[in-house]
Amino acid sequence: MATTEVRGLGHSVKRKEDERFIRGKGNYIDDVTLPGMLHMELLRSPFAHARIVSVDTSRAEALPGVVAVVTGELMAQHNLAWMPTLSGDTQAVLATDKVRFQGQEVAAVVADSAYVAKDALELIDVEYDPLPALTTPQQALEDGAPVIRDEKEGQTSNLIYDWEAGDKEATDRAFAEADQVVELDTFYPRCHPSPLECCGCVADVNPATGKATIYMTSQAPHAIRTLFALVAGLPEQNIRVISPDIGGGFGNKVPIYPGYVVATAASLLLGKPVKWIEDRTGNLISTGFARDYHMHGELAVKDGKITGLRTSLVADEGAFFADAQPSKFKIGLFHIVTGSYDIPAAHVRGEGAYTNKAPGGVAYRCSFRVTEASYLIERLVDVAAHELGVDPAEFRVQNFIKPDQFPYESATGFVYDSGDYEKALRLALEKLGYDDLRKEQAEAREQGRLIGIGLASFTEVVGAGHGKQYDIAGLRMFDSAELRVHPTGKAILKLGVKSQGQGHETTFAQIVAEELGIPYEDIEVQEGDTDNTPYGLGTYASRSTPVAGAATAVISRKLRDKARTIAAHLLEASEDDLEWDRGRFSVKGAPDRAKTIQDVAFAAYTDLPDGMEAGLEGVHYYDPPNMTFPFGTYAVVVEVDRGTGAWKVERMVAVDDCGVRINPMIVEGQIMGGLTEGFAIAAMELITFDEDGNCIGSNFTDYLLPTSWETPSFELGETVTPSPHHPIGAKGVGESATVGSPAAYVNAVVDALAHAGVRNLEMPVTSAKVWEALQEAGLAE
Amino acid sequence: MADTAIEPTTAQTTRAVSVTVNGESHAAEVEPRLLLVHFLRQTLGLTGTHQGCDTTHCGACTVLLDGVPVKSCTVLAVQADGRGITTVEGLQQGAELHPIQVAFREEHGLQCGFCTPGMMLTSVALLQENPNPTDEEIRWALSGNICRCTGYQNIVKAVHHAAAAQASEGGS
Amino acid sequence: MYPSRFEYFAPTTLEEVCELLDRFDGEAKVLAGGQSLIPLMKLRFAAPQALVDINTVAGLDTLAEESGGLHIGALVRHKTCERSDLLGGRFGALGAAAPQISDPIVRNLGTVCGSLAHADPQGDWGSVMLAVGADLEARSSAGTRTIPIEELFQGPFTTSLQENEVITGLQVRDPGPKAAGTYLKLERKVGDYATVGAAIHVSFDNGTVGRAGIALTGVGPANLKATAAEEALAGRELDDDAIVEAARLAAEAAEPQDDVRGSAEYKRSVARVFVERGLRAAAEGRSDG
Question: Which value does ipTM take for this structure?
Fold first, then answer.
């Protein structure tokens, strides 16, 4: 019996999920239609901060086609006007006393059609008494500032937390002994993951059975289900959350949004399914934004080496502290800020403030605030290199953690699993032709042209995480894989994570293929239905491969062990005498005496050793022993137009190391997507507010997403440094490019102007900002 | 704002339309304000055309109107009366996939799949007009279709792939 | 993203169009490309009682040379202009502008005349027509009249069109046997409005400038004709000194505001740079700037 090659790890096999997507047969939330389904639209506050004086819904209720109008008051009667957030705070579901950000949910209309529901919104009369809006954390933290969360007992200011990590004394000592201190103040602007598909749900509470089936754009269906049970008081066994196909998540689809709660409550009250699909304005103005970090960083340098890093930051958390992050960390994993560098002493301090803006902060492929940290250190290192007159590549190499230092314990307590930073950097420089480019840059300067080269050598941290340290609202961050091999040798793998485009139906099948020798085409992968998958914490922060991927490898190996026993039984040999050659057990020295995995699978149901349980099936919940640490070097070349300040990426080289690559094609796709989002953040994405708290950036006219025309082309390279603690040596890669690339782009534009004394440019680096710098530096046309 | 715009007027409240979609005739009574994207998705149940924004930017709703890409969220269903529309569901012929569909799969030109129907239809129209486009021409033609997942590079490869496939088909 | 209710008409003659506009007495809007109107209606910033669709009226889609100039009918799409050979050369400003309007899909439906009637102060065609020179044909039940482009715009989204008038087309004026021009647009991304746009047109007369047209987008409450700059060029050779001077005057005439796209000073400077680059291109017979 010949075996065809089973393609497991390292193969760029085509994706199985594509079959339905290319036919337009995906099943996204807005494709879900149930009999008798009603449609819900939300009324949003026009004010950033205001008392609600009165809400009159009578005209809306009278409109033909309207079934119900839900207010905060109605929700309060059912104890549902407020809900807990993933950060231990509370958030208004529908406003009762006050509105606290422009766009906040105030009421909901349920009607026969979304068109009529929208008509009815205009007939709801809300009287507001506007209050001063606090639009920066600095404003919010001033003495005497109005308290935004005046409904919270004991809340006397707008300060949420004051958090630190590292060793302050050791750091102070390093700074006292430094030759030179390099400082940078920089702001990582508020941006938004803006997946192409907005958030939504179809809530179907069956009045006869009491079972609530909630179709929901959720990256974490199991966790959401448990939280729903706690919030809504519905018995957990009666709640089924189904995440269908998701049109992009990027962290936007992790939190519980008021719309989900109101739709579920409406379905419960009306006994009919209720669909709520937000529009793009709702998505941008109210759902989980990203970043909004005011950062200060200092490097202590002695004899050309970095000896200390001191950082402080103020986080703009919006009106409710709703970050989706492990509960023990207030500023996520920002303390990875020492990055790729061997820095003996570091201290991090972070304060969080309420402001009159939408809640959120941890989103947009940030690996729990690693984007912010990586940006700060890579900008600081570049500023330091320029100030010290050292080439930015060499300065990095001089300060890199060396390969023989792994596992490396950082000054803030991370234990980096593996890395070879110089190798990745040298490869990037080689692909770029760095030395020649520096010459070209100098020559161009003579001709009045501005070329810039920017580097970023990031190390990030993903794979949350070990249960003792990592939990979301108390739920430990293990993840799971349940594998059943059928009698005919095919298999079904069910996971506790949930893809939103990352290709799990293919990559996780490849893991099983590698371990069990079953072709990936024969393995069905299921995710997203809480009734049909093992409990897991979901997909975000690049954790699927490190955690659920490990669980998949482990359970596959367990089944392989059982398969070996069955094979030995079938071959009438001892287990020790069997050899395994992916998919086939054979007797040592007698290779024709063999049984395939398919033979064994059939036998698991038909011909078992005495006393053995039938079936070839099992579930594993994997508790990672440590995080994983993907890394890489990105190099960007730009040219700046001296007349307009516009800059164009001429080349973008990205060398990534995410350990073992399951499917190189998919890994590269993830990287290119992230490099594009990094470009967007560096160049054009911004959500900002005027002094009245009006949101600018709540639609695609103002919130700019790059098209195929602006987006650069990417040259990709790789090094492979496996994770020693991961069963297949993989690290996760989904967020590496958003983590590492913004600094590379910004470093390049600054580098183009650095010779004239320009030290820093703030994101988004618009042509206008570049022009102001050109003008000041005497370089403008 | 007056409420009169919300109340149905005493005059016509619906209008008859007759549209050919993917070669099939459909007749329906629709409100004039019904957007083509909703006509396709809700009236006809063709949910392959998606909606991603509310300001006519993203192009997820792109369909071909008599072979020309249009953003169906910014066209009224009544405007399609007597016209022919191609949606993503109309790309494959029987069981045979359109070369563009094969190309997107082969070149990993999609991840979440949400922009893909619109992206493929715009690509089909491009190749109809320009059977052998350059990278630049492809990127220019697709600049009305936003993708958040792929970074566009594999989409460009997919269009080249389809162009080559169609060229060799035509040649043989 | 759902418009309010309205009545919809698809007349087949201009007479019917005019009759409907009279009947609804200012509460009806003409629907041509719909790429500006429908988005407004979806956001409910516009809620007309009726839409009069002129797409079903024959004879409005002609793009042709006429009397040395160019006739552009009411239903000529941006895409038709982008593809047409007629819009290069003497009409270079139009040819350069057409591919830069909005995005390639919107260009399939949006119309030149519709853009002008919409009168977005950041609209590109307004500057182009002010630079090159054009006359619009307006039709109502009272008859036809000609509106010179200089008299069309009255303010943001406001034109001198009567409520019962519909634009049936426009005539781009004959630029003479030797002319060149371009349109330079700085936008943050495809589909964005211009941060700064500059429409440049030069009609040559025996090697010197016969008539110059310079109009700016995004640096004033409406499309801005830089008359002083134009007059400074008349009769002069289009040499470096003349170009720099004209650019300076054009920048001076600009009235930019600080906003998310940049400071007033920035926009003024870009206007100057663009007018310089555009005039250099025209001098060399190029339209790329």
Answer: 0.97
Each residue's pLDDT tens digit, C121-160: 999 999 999 999 999 999 999 999 999 999 999 989 999 9
CA A240, A244, A246 angle in degrees (round to 5)?
135
**CA of B89: how far to CAs of A27, A141, A708, in Å?**
14, 55, 24
First to last CA, chain C: 39
| Cβ pair C71, C59 in contact under 8 A | no
Mean pLDDT over A444-451 rounds to: 97
Residue among B54, B102, B108 minimizing CB distance to A699: B54
From A482, A677, A685, A735, active-site residue: A735
A219 in catalytic set: yes
Residues A82-97 have a mean pLDDT of 95
Residue B4 in this model has a pLDDT that exceeds 80: no
Confidence label for A234 from pLDDT (cuts 50, 70 and 90)? confident
Neighbouring chains of B at 3+ CB pairs under 8 Å are A, C
User: What is the pLDDT at residue B26?
Assistant: 98
Q: Choose from C105, C106, C185 for mutation: most chain B CBs within 10 A.
A: C105
Q: Where in chain B is the domain with CATH 1.10.150.120?
A: 99-168
Q: Which of A100, A365, A560, A661 is catalytic?
A: A365
Strands A274-277, A200-205: pairing kind: antiparallel
Residue B5 · residue C5 · CB < 8 Å: yes
DSSP letters for C218-276: SSSSS-EE-HHHHHHHTTSB--HHHHHHHHHHHHHH-----BTTB-HHHHHHHHHHHHH
Nearest to B68 among C1, C34, C108 (CB): C108
Instruction: Tell me which chains share at least 3 CB pairs under 8 Å with chain C.
Output: A, B
Sequence-separated (6 or more) residues with CB below 8 Å from residue A764: A189, A681, A682, A683, A684, A685, A686
Per DSSP (E only), the strands in chain C are: 7-9, 28-31, 50-53, 63-66, 69-73, 134-140, 143-148, 153-155, 158-159, 166-172, 179-186, 196-205, 208-217, 224-225
**Quick check: B105 contacting A, CB < 8 Å?**
yes
**Which residues of chain C does A279 touch, with a Cβ-Cβ cutoff of 8 Å?**
1
Residue A527 designated active-site? no
Across the interface, do C263 and A781 touch by the CB < 8 Å criterion? no
What's the pLDDT at B12? 60
Residue range(s) occupied by CATH 3.10.20.30 in chain B:
15-90
Q: Are B18 and B81 in contact (CB under 8 A)?
A: yes
pTM: 0.97
The closest alpha carbon to B9, from C9, C10, C17, belongs to: C9
A658 among known catalytic residues: no
pLDDT tops 70 at residue A2: no
Residues of chain A by 3-state class (helix, strand, coil), percent to 5: 30, 25, 45
CATH code reported for the domain at B15-90: 3.10.20.30
Q: Is C190 on the interface with A (CB under 8 A)?
A: yes
What is the average pLDDT across C169-185? 97
Q: Is the pLDDT score of A577 beyond 70?
A: yes
Measure CB to CB from residue C108 to each of B4, B7, B69 and give the nearest one.
B69
Two structure tokens written together for C58: 């024959």
Q: What is the pLDDT of residues A252-272, one digit of tens each?
A: 999 999 999 999 999 999 999
* pLDDT, average across residues A609-629: 98
- The reply to whether residue A706 touches residue C1, judged by beta carbons under 8 angstroms, is no
Q: Does any CB of chain A come closer than 8 Å to the CB of residue C273? A: yes
- For A715, name the nearest residue in chain B, comparing CA atoms only: B153
Interatomic CA distance for residues A400 and A398, integer angstroms: 6
| pLDDT class of C288 with cuts at 50, 70, 90 | low
* Fold exhibited by the domain B99-168: DNA polymerase; domain 1 (1.10.150)
